[in-house]
């Protein structure tokens, strides 16, 4: 038996099989088969690689990474921002860039107003016809015979030729937009929420009523009160503002806060845009005379608010809004039209150049559609005269054909006086618009088509008449009212150019001396001077990791590759710590959804800068790096070269925020290993939102402080999805609480330094409410000269001469916390050591004045109760013993002692806690007021007023609501009113919490709401426990 028939284990495997002839022939055929020519050429193109003899071969027998992780990571795409790949063509780009070198032909404006008042839709109207900006699926090519808002002859906009000699308007195939594109809402969450979150810039070439092109820099700002910080950042860069006010609702709470920002930034050049005119026609269905009264009332309310806001800050109110002056424009973003008195005046003044049928009387209906029926002959008035006539109590007498200020008598007694003879604004402007609306809404195609073609010269495609009413009306209005030229003319006339406004802009925002060479260059917008840029905004790139800063060139020319000094908000000539060097690697013209890269940005222009954001947190000042001695060689980057720089450049003032951040949320990553990602994500969130603050408490919790619920929700969304890419665990939202006193220090005790060589004695008491309001409004601050401050305190607040001259410092929040600007805190320190004492003691105290001031501001930033801000307290230094030797009175000895002395004085002056109060504005029907008041009462709310909105069925309820009880208030009110109420809440004031926070006799019961008088104690205990502090607050810790 052959062993080859069995394997090594004794299993029978049998003899080897011999190959058959068929298998042998098939294998030989496969080996000899020719390779196809295409495959042969492909094989020839495969390169032959030689193995590096130094290469190391690694053989892995199992996966080194989980199956859920791909071997090659896919490229992450930005699915958060709406990015347009459209670019301007070459000639359009060059024309746009060249216009920026002519500041006289440029205007920089911020579009501001309340939420849902038509700001973003107005920007859509501005961008209509610019194919490089919007992905438009249809085109409208027509010719206008000169409707209100016409351009000059031959002006081209989106293929539409407009001019006074054209007699027809034609619409091409394609449906009009059925909804607003909201081009400046470039974030996905903005589109989903239906509210703007970030301010978005645009740079547009737009014609005025004469057909002359101007470069209009536009910043579309959010209207929600939680994003007023975006308004502050936008207004700082602008020379003027367009105030958007809903013609139905009028000015609301957000508009009032916006006026405060404009007044603080000294932006006095404004244009009023009354939007949503269509709501008066289609929703309220007001007759034209009542619509005029409603518009006049809204303009009067705006003028009243402007006057009150500027007067309260001690400033001269700006020019009154008056349609006859030209600084008021009307329009509707929903139906794409804008008009002014000037546009209609030019329309009527040019009627003598028209053809037959000058009054556009319909041959079929016999009534006027384009103008009022009283117009029988071409007017013998020019456009300037008609502009003044078309507003106010002025009527046209049908018999004499003259305008008069007294209402003419009506011959037919049965006829309504207002309908028979109306004011000029009603007869010549409102009634034609009403008739256009009524014809389009109420007529069918057989009657509407001849009306549009014969009376208005508007020719539509047959398919257009099958559109829904809103789309058809929008198309007709878009063709009849030619673009935004009336608004452009108002902006050009009433808002100065960057060069004309440079002097006022620098005086209002620059913190340095105005006598330096750099300041003089900025005051005159000198393009030949040193390049200075002021930045206020940061926009992230597509990778969501790096940022580009957005700012305004104040002087000189910013060029790509220029070396810059980046000066942060904490920089000063005496402390250059917050300063770094950077290179402007990229320069763009930012168009919200795309960027146009440029080589240079001239003085007065807006620019997006890349490569300089590493050390910028909020606002910054960029200065061209130029050595004192240019001939000494090239500029080097080493810190040793600092002595060769010009150190005369100072920073611009930090931004003013009208709303205080009062909502705080603590968060932590679900996976502890992602803590570094959380820290980096919080830093990016603080950079992206101008007023958001982030800090780490002693307990290790990372805290986010925002202006409101919506702002906190957006910031957390960005932290999770955009900047951090991690899962978070968040605590219940809370509010910021402050400390104060309601009495005087009973017994002043001396507090000694650790070395026993110095002693300080302070007392504390309440600060006057009027002075508190002035400090909050930044009318009184540390930057005032001593003599100016003393005169102000004596004249305005009734202080005596000795006390007014004894002010050492006001409290300052400083810049120690991320994202917190140097804003004054309403607490003050006085040197109350009487002059009758020995002059030696007063001189010794002045030696350590700076140290005592630092200790006082430290105590004001972190109080003894809950380590929060101390407000409304007047600290007085009543005695001091200072060591004669400098060694024993250094900062390490005096500063902590001054802090402990302030704590001891505060704890002996009946300390209390203060909670933020929100001003709630609720707009609802009259039958919902009872439900709204009930919801507010359950949340410790206090109703201030309940007033009807004139001309509407709505009422406005104003109330104070504690911020602690305001979480979920909006949802609660909507539920109880079936969604008929609209509410906004914004920080308004601080109020003292009832009860004594140091009353140890109070026993809090878990899971039960605390009584009203126990709230202060509950706040104190919960806050201290959250921060890792002991429950006991004892004065013994701060005394010797």
Explain what the structure shows.
This protein is α+β, with helices and mostly antiparallel strands and 1040 residues long. Among the domains are: 90-136 and 182-339, Rossmann fold; 501-624, Translation factors (Elongation Factor Tu (Ef-tu), domain 3, Beta Barrel); 663-735, Alpha-Beta Plaits, CATH 3.30.70; 739-909, Ribosomal Protein S5, domain 2 (2-Layer Sandwich), CATH 3.30.230; 915-1029, Alpha-Beta Plaits (2-Layer Sandwich), CATH 3.30.70. The strands form nine sheets. It has an eight-stranded antiparallel beta sheet.
Short summary:
This protein has 1040 residues and is an alpha+beta fold.
Name the helicity range: 25-40%
Strand order of the largest sheet: 19-18-24-15-16-23-20-21
Strand proportion = 15-25%
Radius of gyration (Å): 36 Å
Under CATH, the homologous superfamily of one domain reads: P-loop containing nucleotide triphosphate hydrolases
> Mind telling me the CATH class of one domain?
Alpha Beta
- What's the overall average pLDDT, rounded? 83
Protein name: 116 kDa U5 small nuclear ribonucleoprotein component
GO molecular function, one term: GTPase activity
Keywords: GTP-binding, Nucleotide-binding, Ribonucleoprotein
InterPro entries: EFG_III/V, EFG_V-like, P-loop_NTPase, Ribosomal_Su5_D2-typ_SF, Ribsml_uS5_D2-typ_fold_subgr, T_Tr_GTP-bd_dom, Transl_B-barrel_sf, Transl_elong_EFG/EF2_IV
């Amino acid at each position: 038996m052959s062993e080859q028939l069995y394997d090594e284990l004794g299993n029978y495997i049998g003899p080897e099989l011999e190959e058959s002839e068929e298998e042998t022939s098939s294998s030989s055929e496969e080996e000899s088969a020719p390779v196809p020519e295409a495959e042969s050429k492909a094989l020839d193109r495969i390169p032959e690689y030689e193995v590096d003899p130094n290469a190391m071969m690694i053989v892995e027998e199992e996966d080194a990474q989980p199956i859920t992780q791909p071997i090659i990571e896919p490229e992450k795409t930005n699915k958060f921002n709406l990015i347009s790949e459209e670019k301007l063509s070459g000639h359009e780009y060059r024309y746009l860039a060249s216009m920026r070198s002519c500041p006289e032909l440029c205007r920089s404006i911020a579009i501001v107003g309340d939420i849902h008042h038509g700001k973003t839709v107005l920007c859509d109207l501005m961008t209509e016809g610019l194919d490089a900006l919007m992905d438009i699926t249809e085109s409208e090519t027509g010719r206008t015979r000169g409707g209100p808002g016409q351009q000059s002859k031959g002006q081209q906009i989106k293929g539409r030729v407009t001019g006074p000699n054209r007699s027809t308007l034609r619409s091409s195939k394609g449906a009009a937009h059925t909804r607003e594109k909201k081009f400046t809402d470039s974030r996905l969450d903005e589109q989903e929420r239906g509210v703007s979150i970030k301010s978005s810039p645009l740079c547009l070439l737009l014609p005025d009523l004469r057909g002359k092109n101007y470069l209009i820099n536009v910043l579309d700002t959010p209207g929600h009160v939680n994003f007023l910080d975006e308004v502050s950042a936008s207004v700082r860069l602008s020379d003027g503002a367009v105030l958007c006010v809903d013609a139905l609702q009028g000015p609301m709470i957000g508009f009032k806060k916006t006026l405060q920002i404009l007044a603080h930034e000294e932006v006095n050049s404004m244009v009023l845009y009354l939007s949503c005119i269509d709501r008066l026609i289609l929703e309220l269905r007001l007759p034209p005379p009542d619509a005029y009264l409603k518009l006049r009332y809204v303009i009067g309310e705006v003028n009243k608010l402007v006057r009150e806001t500027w007067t309260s800050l001690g400033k001269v109110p700006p020019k009154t809004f008056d349609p006859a002056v030209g600084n008021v424009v009307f329009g509707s973003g929903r139906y794409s039209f804008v008009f002014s008195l000037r546009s209609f005046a030019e329309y009527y003044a040019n009627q003598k150049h028209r053809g037959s049928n000058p009054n556009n009387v319909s041959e079929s209906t016999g009534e006027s559609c384009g103008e009022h029926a009283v117009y029988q002959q071409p007017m013998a008035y020019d456009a300037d005269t008609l502009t003044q006539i078309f507003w106010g109590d002025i009527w046209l007498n049908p018999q004499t054909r003259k305008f008069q200020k007294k209402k003419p008598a009506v011959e037919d007694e049965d006829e309504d006086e207002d309908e028979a003879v109306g004011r000029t604004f009603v007869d010549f402007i409102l009634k034609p618009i009403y008739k256009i609306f009524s014809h389009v809404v109420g007529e069918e195609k057989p009657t509407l088509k001849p009306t549009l073609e014969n009376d208005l010269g508007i020719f539509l495609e047959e398919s257009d008449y099958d559109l829904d009413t809103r789309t058809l009306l929008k198309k007709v209005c878009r063709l009849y009212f030619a673009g935004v030229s009336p608004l452009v003319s108002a902006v050009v006339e009433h808002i100065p150019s960057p060069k004309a406004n440079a002097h006022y802009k620098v005086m209002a925002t620059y913190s340095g001396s105005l006598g330096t060479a750099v300041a003089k260059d900025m005051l005159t917008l000198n393009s030949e001077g040193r390049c200075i840029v002021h930045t206020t905004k940061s926009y992230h790139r597509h990778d969501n990791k790096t940022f580009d800063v957005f700012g305004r060139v104040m002087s000189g020319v910013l060029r790509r590759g220029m070396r810059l000094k980046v000066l942060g908000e904490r920089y000063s000539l005496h402390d250059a710590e917050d300063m770094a060097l950077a290179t402007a690697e990229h320069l763009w013209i930012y168009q919200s959804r795309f960027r146009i890269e440029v080589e240079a940005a001239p003085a007065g222009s807006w620019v997006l800068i890349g490569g300089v954001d590493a050390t910028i947190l909020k606002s910054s000042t960029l200065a061209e790096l130029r050595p004192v001695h240019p001939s000494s060689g090239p500029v080097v980057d080493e810190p040793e070269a600092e002595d060769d720089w010009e150190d005369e450049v100072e920073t611009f003032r930090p931004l003013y925020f009208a709303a205080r951040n009062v909502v705080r949320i603590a968060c932590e990553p679900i996976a502890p290993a992602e803590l570094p990602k959380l820290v980096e994500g919080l830093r990016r969130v603080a950079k992206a939102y101008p007023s958001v603050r982030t800090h780490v408490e002693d307990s290790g919790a990372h805290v986010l402080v925002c202006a409101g619920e919506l702002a906190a929700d957006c910031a957390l969304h960005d932290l999770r999805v955009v900047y951090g890419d991690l899962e978070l665990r968040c605590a219940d939202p809370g509010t910021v609480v402050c400390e104060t006193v309601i009495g005087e220090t009973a017994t002043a005790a001396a507090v000694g330094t650790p070395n026993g060589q110095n002693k300080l004695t302070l007392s504390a008491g309440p600060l006057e409410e009027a002075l508190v309001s002035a400090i909050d409004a930044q009318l009184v601050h540390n930057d005032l000269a001593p003599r100016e401050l003393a005169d102000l305190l004596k004249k305005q607040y009734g202080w005596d001469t000795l006390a007014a001259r004894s002010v050492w410092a006001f409290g300052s929040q400083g810049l120690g916390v991320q994202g917190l600007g140097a804003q004054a805190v309403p607490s003050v320190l006085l040197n109350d050591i009487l002059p009758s004492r020995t002059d030696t003691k007063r001189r010794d105290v002045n030696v350590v004045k700076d140290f005592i001031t630092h200790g006082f501001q430290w105590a004001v930033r972190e109080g003894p109760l809950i380590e929060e801000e101390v407000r409304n307290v007047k600290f007085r230094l009543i005695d001091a013993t200072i060591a004669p030797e400098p060694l024993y009175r250094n900062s390490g000895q005096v500063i902590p002692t001054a802090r402990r002395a302030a704590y001891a004085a505060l704890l002996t002056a009946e300390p209390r806690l203060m909670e933020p109060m929100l001003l709630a504005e609720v707009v609802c029907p009259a039958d919902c007021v009872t439900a709204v008041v009930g919801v507010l009462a359950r949340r410790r709310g206090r109703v201030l007023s309940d007033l009807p909105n004139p001309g509407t069925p709505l009422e406005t309820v104003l109330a104070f609501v504690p911020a602690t009880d305001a979480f979920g208030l909006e949802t609660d009110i909507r539920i109880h009113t079936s969604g008929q109420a609209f509410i906004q809440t914004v920080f308004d004031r601080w109020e003292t919490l009832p009860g004594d926070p140091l009353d140890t006799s109070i026993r809090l019961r878990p899971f039960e709401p605390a009584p009203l008088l126990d709230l202060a104690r509950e706040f104190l205990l919960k806050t201290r426990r959250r921060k890792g502090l002991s429950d006991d607050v004892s004065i013994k810790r701060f005394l010797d």
